Amino acid sequence: MVTGVVYSTFCLMAKLFTSLGLGAIVSLAEYFFVLAGGLVLHAAVTYSAMLKVFSGLSPFVFLRKMEDAIMFAFSTASSNATIPVSMETTTRRMGADNKIASFTIPLGATINMDGTAMMQGVATIFIAQAFNVDLTMMDYLTVILTATLASIGTAGVPGVGLVMLAMVLKQVGLPLEGIALIMGVDRLLDMIRTAVNITGDCAVTCIVAKSEGALDENRFYDMHAADEDEKIIFKPSAQR
Ligand code: ASP
């Protein structure tokens, strides 16, 4: 079944690119690198600046402790599946109070999808250029608004951002077939944007916890916090 889908997607893409020419592959590569670069920059710069300005916490410590959650989000491409790991990271490794994290993390995993909004914006411009459609200033503002709304409506599971892109395309009168152009590279971009989405949730959790006096800073700066929790003891309990 999966092999069938892979073959049929490959055949559809091969047909598309033979009719569009090699230039289409180059623009697709450009789309991929622009979006991937933007996403990495957003996670590293915007969240770090937010964390520093609003809470005074160290972005380096934060990003170092995010490693596990980022890897998990990257491999599952699902914000919702990453909720338990984000909860563990923010409470046990970063010292945020459970009463803050248990509210902000599930809420963020449901509605806070900056990575998805970025993808929808960049993808809309890419599709407009691929179909030679000139977007006006008003169209750009519509794209910003609808991409933000569509990302809020996107479920935290793999690939839904691409489905919600249809809403943005329709709003500015672009053909929905454009989605097929980016489908082939979307899985990898989905993995990256999911990592960005959950990094935002965890950054905001730390900021809110700090502002509420519910963040244990000693734990935040302890690079070995919760290390013991990670160790798995393989002996049966009777032998311990
Ligand atoms: N996979 C993304 C997430 O779970 C949603 C998407 O953009 O498709 O955050």
UniProtKB/TrEMBL annotation:
Its main location: membrane. It is a multi-pass membrane protein. The chain crosses the membrane at residues 12-33, 39-63, 100-128, 140-169. It comes from the Bacteria. InterPro entries: DAACS, Na-dicarboxylate_symporter, Na:dicarbo_symporter_sf. One of its GO terms (cellular component) is membrane. Gene3D superfamilies: Sodium:dicarboxylate symporter. It is found in: Membrane. Keywords: Membrane, Transmembrane, Transmembrane helix, Transport. The keyword Transport applies. One of its GO terms (molecular function) is symporter activity. This is Sodium:dicarboxylate symporter family protein. It comes from Enterovibrio nigricans DSM 22720. The lineage of its organism: Bacteria, Pseudomonadati, Pseudomonadota, Gammaproteobacteria, Vibrionales.
